[in-house]
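Complex record, three chains
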Amino acid sequence: MNHYRLPRQPFKCGNSPTGAPCPLGPIRGRCSQSHADPTLVCRPLRTLDWWSRSIQVSVTLVALIGVSLAWSNFGNKQTLAPGPLSRSHAQLLVSVQTGIDGPHGIDSASRCDSCHPGNDTASPATKQSDLCLKCHVQEMPDAVHGSPHDLHGKSLAELVANGDRRETKSNWSHWLGRSPIAWKENATECSQCHREHQGSSHDLKEMTSTRCQACHREQFHSFSTNHPEFKNYPYGRTKSIAFDHVKHRDLHFSKKAANFDCKVCHVQSDQVGVVGQVFRSVPLEQACASCHKEPIQSAIQEGLIVLQIPSLNRKELMGNGTDIGDWPTQASQLTDGIIPPIMRLLIESEPGGHALLKELPTSGRLVELDTRDEQARATLVKLSIMTKQLMQKLANEGQRGFRSSVERLVSTSGPLLANDRSSQPNPWLDRFANGVPPDLFRAAWNEWFENGSTVPMVSQNPSPSLSPVRLSASIRSVDDDLLGKGSKLNPGDDSLLLNDPSNLLDSHGLDSQGHNGPPFERFKDSRAWDQLAFGGWMIDRQRMAIVYVPSGHADAWLSRWIELEEMRPSENSLPNDVEQNKIAMAKQCRQCHSLQAALKHDQPLHHDNWTASFRQANQSPLSQVMFASAEGSNACWKSKSRAANLSPITKFDHTPHLTLPKISDCRSCHQLESFNLGGSTDLVTKGSTSPHEPHGEFAPMQKAQCAGCHQPNAAGESCTQCHNYHVGIKGWLEGHK
Amino acid sequence: MASKTQTHASSATTSVHALAAQHGRIGCRLIPSATVLVIWLVIRSLRNQSAASLQNEAFVTGYSLAAICVFLMLLGVRKRVLSVQLGRLAIWQQTHHYLGLLSVGAYALHAKILTTGWLESLLAMSFWSIALSGLIGWYVNRRSPRLLRAAGPQILRQDIPERTRLIAKQALELALASAGKNDTAALADHYLVLLSPFFATRRSLIYRLSPSGNTRRRLVAGLENIDRYLSEEGRNQRREMSLLVQAKDDLDFQSAIQNRIRFWASAHTWVLGGFLVLTTAHVIVAHRFASSW
Amino acid sequence: MKTHSSDQIAMDRPVRWDHPLDPEMLTRAVCWILDQPPFSDMNSDVFPSHSSLEDILRHDCRILRYEPGDIIVREGDYGGSAYLVLRGSVRAFLESLWQPRGKPTDSSHSSTWLDWLKQQFKQVPLPSQATSNENRREGSRSGNQTASADKNRPTPLQQIETVDGKSRIFLQDINAVINGFQSEPLGVGEIFGEMAAITRSQHRYTVVANSPTVVLEIRWQGLRMMRRDKTFRDYLDARFRETSLQTHLRETPLLRFLDDAAMEKVIAQTNIESIGEREWFSEYRDTQKLDVQTQIAREPLIAAEGHVVKDLILIRAGFARLSFEQGRGHQTVAYLGRGHVFGLAELAHRFRYSANNPLPYQESLRALGFVDILRIPSEIVLTHILPKIRNAELPKPIANPRYDSGGLVVSELLPSSREGYVYPAEKSLSNLETSLVEFLVDERLINGKQTMLIDLDRCTGCDECVKACASTHEGTPRFVRNGPQFGPLLFAHACMHCTDPVCMIGCPTGAIARDQDSGVISIDLQTCIGCKTCAESCPYSNIVMIQVRDEKGRAAVDRKTQLPILQASKCDLCQELTTGPACQNACPHQALIRIDTSETHALEHWLTKRAG
């Protein structure tokens, strides 16, 4: 007869495999049948139902136990970590358990707490971002506000205003309540964009554009279509070094039949800048030296006259009853010569110097002074005295004297660094004074005013102020107390003991050569540059002058003078702008360098220390220059690095681009606007027009050039490829200049 | 000649069954797929919205995934609740299938295929094991009816051993019968050598995993080969034997397929409890350590 | 078995009459009844000692009292008892009292999926609804008639009120109803409701108390015992004939336009005939083993094809096979059940087209098991009935007859191509492929009202249905997912709740009974004594004897014999669930449905849907 098959039975009759199961089957795992013979009594078998049920139970139990173990081990929360930290963070938080007892070795318990707030250690109030910023604040000081682009105050208000306007447009983005722009007050969290625990190789900075488009929804659906056009990118910055590409390519290089290769001057393969190995300018030796070194040399070999004894027609003066005291014979024939610009500056720094300079002819030529004129003669006398005073000062007070006088010059020209008075050490001044040799001045004094070279003077009524005796006495007195306290000798002053460089050499010669040395030959009075090929100080006996020969390109001392000359406002009525009164060599420099331009555009903005430099903004130009060249890096002489030119909102790297053969040639992106070579005149005009202005010689780059490759399926068009988020106020202003 | 005057006779009784059957077809395809599509779109847009408002979209996707899983588990509840009217189980089943697919999609939105971190990895693994077994079971369920129909009239899984034994018995008797006479003995020998193990033992694991007719064909062919040694009577016996072989093979086939169905059906439920536990833990941890969502 | 004593609990084997119909039946009452006719003149010797007439009265009867207007028997309810009037009088309304209410469910065929969705969350219809639909339909038929007769007729309101705990259903304003509807009075000593009780079918009439009435209810087990008394049996049969004859004829829509005079004539001329065994199942068991053709040959022939049409045959109960000779065998065209008519087409043809050379029967009609038929002579049909029938309702002319007056027509055409003799009402009959029809008939599945049909093209054998059934029935399923199989259609071994539930016949205690209005046949485990009668008499072996176990699964054994105590168990269509049969709800693949196979409509509909 028919019988039912019971479902969900944990056991089946033990006889079922053999094919003779009891119809009722076992009950509670035991044979239910009352079999007559015990052999038929079966040991029931387990069914698939039984097995699967027990598997379910055991799996659940195992899971429960595992989880609860992990939980009980909650102090060590790493067991619950969803994944390894990114490499940098992992290194920072080296766990003790990993065995590495590094300096940062922290026990695993507090390891999580160092980023996850609200645990046993941290107070629940602290947000995770606060913990992040413990370390990251110096990179992004404004990030503490947790506001969009780290903005706050006015700029945030303005940004949010814009944002709100967009927000209203975006159809149902309020759907989830919190629209990102509405977060003016409640701060964003780092973790909203930077996702940790994604594995050690995960780049925390990599970002999907949706993050940006939370706010920038309308404009930026795709780069090629929605991104606004570039405005004169990446040019539109004044150049502190005037280099005319067109001119060089079409005139100079073509003349020399040289290859005009961008990479020669713009690629420095041994270092990496903000935009890769491409630099706006490379050292002179690499780029310009081949052509520009020689003219510079020829320009500077004359040397820079620091102090020159003006030649005065002594007889004539005497004849007219004026005495100028001791005066070198070579400089006593006729009244002639010009006061060199540096000497003028030094004079100006002296008390009464300003007045004296005013009396001198604007051209600076002494010839124009009529010696028969009483007034003029007085001027000449003053000049002679001033000259001696200067020499004495430099001889006696040495570099301190020099520094003080320069300082006086500077301080006349407006305030120094804010809250900075001469009392404070000023690195710029110190460097300026560095290397000025007093002994040279002394030697010159001795040579020209002490030993026989001077005409013995016969004077009835010597003016007390001008008695050479007093002068010498004064020097001697100085010598005495110098000898007295030798301890406080200037490093330059000890050469005081040997009277003459020639003697010095001589004695050396004797010492070195011994008695049976070769016969000592007479010095031939040679030109300066023969001996001072690499720059230095000397006495020029022809010109009766102390000369400084610059060491070539980028000579520190010379550049200081030029800075001074250029930067000090000419508020005083001195004719400094007259050609003769300017430092002649500066012309060479000015061909390429322009301090004005350098200052006109912005501080060198390296992202790490822009705040520091930013604090120096809105200061007097000179003090800016001082600041810039304070650290010996002649910052305002060099062309600004690309970093200075990129607004912090944007970033760019040449390296990946240059690897592509298609655009490995710079000109594929940076197109020089070429001119018809027929009219070289307009070339010149073109080139020479305002070399320091933003140069239109490169065609500004178009968005299309980038959009060619930067498509969603090609080079990618994510916002963060070219843009930085954390810009802060400064960057914001930068970006919106 | 018959006439039937009760035209509507009792069609009312069955009209509703018929109706259900009629719409069942449409319902089982159309409605669940539509629902699933809608849900999918909703989840997508929710996720985009939360991402757009700088929230942690993992929470949106995670919770929708959890919701889907809960609904999927409700099928088990529905199967046990019979006293309350909850709609046809067929609809539930179909929805279960579609939502199962949807859950895989939601998972893709939520996490990588195998995530990092042991808790999450275990969770992912359990999810995948459930999803995979479900998919396989689905396929098996769709395919098996045809296979079963191919293997003769349906037979209950519990009855298969008994039938097998009966067939073996018949075969043995047939062999014994043939053993007696000279002109039929070949069949007995053949049975002794080849067939008795086939009838007596259960099939190899390979066969039970993927049943095929090869053995049957081989045996039947072998049987036909011995016809030459047989008299007419022997041939008849041989034909019976072939039929028995066929029957035995059908039974084996049936049991293989039915066991396969059972296996995947139960495998689908093995890690369910563990999955629930891990999910709970995962949710708690996520909330505990998430700084923002 | 000593070893398993812990698995068993000893108890007394339940016996018949443990649960009498009315425990408070007083001996005095029994004695009093014994004095009343017809019991007074019954011969008490014919009753065996173990069940004397007295015992029968005590255990299988009870006394009921009714007020005027109380409804004692309602048309359409399944009857399990006969009623004998002891005092007062009642009225039997041979025509339906109630107009159809609401529109039948099957009119919502062309519904949007939205309705379907609602459908999903409404409960799967209970057989109760189904059968009540049926009632309505029958009601509607006679309703049309009444409506056509005269419009202004009161609709009797039935009210329910509870008097001392028992709720009584009664008609308001009984007199108006009596005047308004045709009814016949029944007095003391007359019996009613016995027809339904014996044939395990529905009541065909409503009986209302006319005056303060005392009625003796005899449940059908008792009635069967009483039939041992000859006079009583004859009385029953006689009464059975006339009432059933009348009611059936009155309910036959063909005759609904007849005036009373004509109807009287028809009733007079018609004679009723029972063919085959009431307990047909035992014979069916034997014949089942034979091959189909011999089976058919064995079936008692009601009307032979090719013979002259002597009368119109109405089938009143049971089933008949409609077949014709095809080659060497018989091809089954359809099976006819209650309410079907045989021979009308031929007569109509003759009436309208060829009065002079009439066509003989085109098919033969064979009794499947037990059949009740009424024969109306052709003349009566031609003279009184056909003229009254509208042409629309008349069958189409027979285009190419299989037999004509000359005998077999030589140019034999395939039946399918002869839609000439198939007309709309019946078209659906021939839509099922013949093999399926034959299968249904041979397996006697035509008997099923809630047949469990499994589509093997969808079934994966996941046993969800079995599990569902088991969990609704204390862990023991009530069916076997196996059974006769026709192609992809598996008719599982689950109770079909037959139109003719032969299982009920033998039951000595009435444990197995048909629910009054749902028509669901269920076994009352309190009264079941595990005698196996039902299980053996069920032709489909859908009743299984199971060991009685307590909730711990311990088997109950007889205290004396130590043999396990069995009980009959079968599908009860999840009566306790509001959601309908659990098996159907639980099938995840829509492979299993409960379907009415006594009519072909449902099957056809389902098959067409299945085809897609």
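Note: DSSP finds 30 helices and five strands in chain A.
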